Amino acid sequence: MKKTIPAVFISILWLIHPAFAQSLDSIAVVTKNWKTTSIGKGIVWKHGHFEQLFGSHQDINLVEIDLKKYRKKIRIAADSVRLDSASQMATAHGAVVAINGGFFDMKNGGSVDFVKVDHQVINRTKKPTDRADAVLLISGKKTEIRSAASVDYERNKVPNVLLSGPLLMQNGYAVALAANPFNDNRHPRSAVAVTADRKLIFMVVDGRNKHAAGMNLTELTKLLDWLGADDAMNLDGGGSSTLFVKGATETGVVNHPSDNKQFDHFGQRPVASIIYVAD
User: Fold this and answer.
1) Quick check: 74 and 275 in contact, CB under 8 A?
2) How far apart are CA 225 and CA 211, in angstroms?
């Protein structure tokens, strides 16, 4: 009986004191014994399953990329009308690792927000939204995440640009998020972040399954913060959330895309763009 008291006590504190629960969550993340696989010098894939994170089951996959070594190999791939699975796009472009990109038109194809690849505009924003308030800017010299309002991204000379969002973190601080169902409800999530020590993070949080609840954007932001993100932005999530690691599985998909309602690697949704590291 004595052995059960601490567990019960902690459970009660978790329920009645949110700050205590958050402290336990942060400790769980930073002390996690992640399953870690080296993909190449300067690229590491990490997987972690949590039985209790934000009060739920969570399954997280992320890739850390050393920008000092790979700054010239960060790319965007996109098609103006065609939709393909992230793994197909990644394989076609010779990607080592890749993550799905921005929001897209499921009926007509192509991105619904601005995308530029190698100085060529692939899609322009069809209808501006408050959600798409962050830009990923990629050149051979630098990869950065900025507020869309802070840069004229359509005229900027940076060769690769992807508009998405919401912006989650800037200069080490969480960005205030609007209260709405997209932000507040739990879903599978995809995000990209840059750390203070110049690592690029591709991260996917699984959801819509008994093994993985998914996260709201406040939870996602906290997770990125605990993992060392300095700047971070949300990407298209839900059924689109896909993380690719070349050769890691039959398809290269290491998370559990939710479109087939199975907790496996085969439920990919065709997407319009990916962010990837070239071989």
Assistant:
1) yes
2) 23
Q: What is the DSSP letter of 190?
A: E
For the entire predicted model, the pTM comes to 0.92
CB 141 within 8 A of CB 73: no
pLDDT tens for residues 120-140? 999 999 999 999 999 999 999
Contacts (Cβ under 8 Å, ≥6 apart) of 227? 29, 62, 193, 195, 201, 203
Q: Locate tokens 């336990």: which residue?
A: 24
Q: Which H/E stretch holds residue 169?
A: strand 167-170
pLDDT category at 172 given cuts 50, 70, 90 is: very high
CA–CA distance, 224 with 220 (Å, rounded to integer)? 6
Residues 6+ apart with CB under 8 A from 169: 175, 193, 221, 224, 225, 229, 230, 231, 232
DSSP 271: B
What phi, psi does 265 have (nearest 5°)? -105, 15
Q: Is 107 helix (H, G, I), strand (E, B) or coil?
A: coil
Secondary structure, 3-state, 23-81: HHHHHHHHCCCCEEEEEECCEEEEEEEEEEECCEEEEEEEEEEEHHHHCCCEEEEECCC
pLDDT tens digits, one per residue of 191-242: 999 999 999 999 999 999 999 999 999 999 999 999 999 999 999 999 999 9
